[in-house]
Amino acid sequence: MKAYLILEDGNVFEGESFGAQTxxxxxxxxxxxxTGYLEVLTDPSYAGQSVVMTYPLIGNYGVCFEDEESRKxxxxxxxxxxxxxxxxxxRKNVDLETYLIDNNIPGIQGVDTRHITxxxxxxxxxxxxxxxxxxxDLSEVLERIKAFxxxxxxxxxxxxxxxxxxxxxxxxxxxxxxxxxxIAKELVKRGCEVTxxxxxxxxxxxxxGNFDGVMLSNGPGDPEECVEIIEEMKVLMASGLPIFAxxxxxxxxxxxxxxxxxxxxxxxxxxxxxxxxxxxGRVYISTQNHNFVVVEDKIDETIAKAWFKNVxxxxxxxxxxxxxxxxxxxxxxxxxxxxxxxxxxxxxxxTMMGGNHNA
Length: 359
What we know:
The protein has ten helices and 19 strands. By secondary structure, it is an alpha/beta fold. It folds into two domains: 2-150, Carbamoyl-phosphate synthase small subunit, N-terminal domain (Glucose Oxidase, domain 1); 154-352, 3-Layer(aba) Sandwich (Rossmann fold), CATH 3.40.50.880.
């Protein structure tokens, strides 16, 4: 069956439908990873977005449920040049198309993903639609597409009730703003008992919980929309508890300190982004998935300093707070899928809590 990708700038791409045959409007971003498509699909940070994969062949090793990063996929739609019909891997549970059908996610293949990526790079992130309906008149469709806004996504992706995993000498509270499972797994590997809390949890609940440290997770959407959460972060940061934050958590902590965030033109999405540790000058390859960044010249130098920077565009990738036991990074040190270069940051968090870090 034919399918169409309609971008808000009026560009229309005709391809072949795969996955669920349903219509979806969302924001479109591109991801430059060669592998890890299941981790992309199940990363809650993509809530409200459809993903264009730049690598031409996707699905060649099928889907292994063990590799899912959350309880379900959150990507709205999936755009590939070619979807492999047969996934070949001894761990495979189902093929990619079956997985998309089972989770009601529409896909389109047979389109020029390189061309689509260039449009997003030049024009910036934009809304679009994946549909199997051929629209002769695009005026009404484009109005619907342009009216779409990513909102309420943290509430849609966070857990409903607290739960605990792992055993160990250190008790860690993990705020779930749309957390990837591997964050908790990396802490458990280092001897932590991790209690995962919904995004709406009051800071005082954490403070009263006798935790050794707090981890703030990744998550989707505009950080400035999380007004109530930011207020709780102000209370939390005043508690003196060691805090380490990733991605959205990094942005929320910056906003809680009175700094500012802004939206990037097309964001960072992929497993090949170089970041520089400003303390050592060493460059690491990182996994990233975000549209917003902390504004460098709005960081109060009496409160914090830049820790990591993106080698490609110079944006802030980490912040170290000077008089608080708080460190934050924009990228994903849990790196699933992706390079393991920055996994040592979990060891650094263990040190912040005064613990060992034998992963």
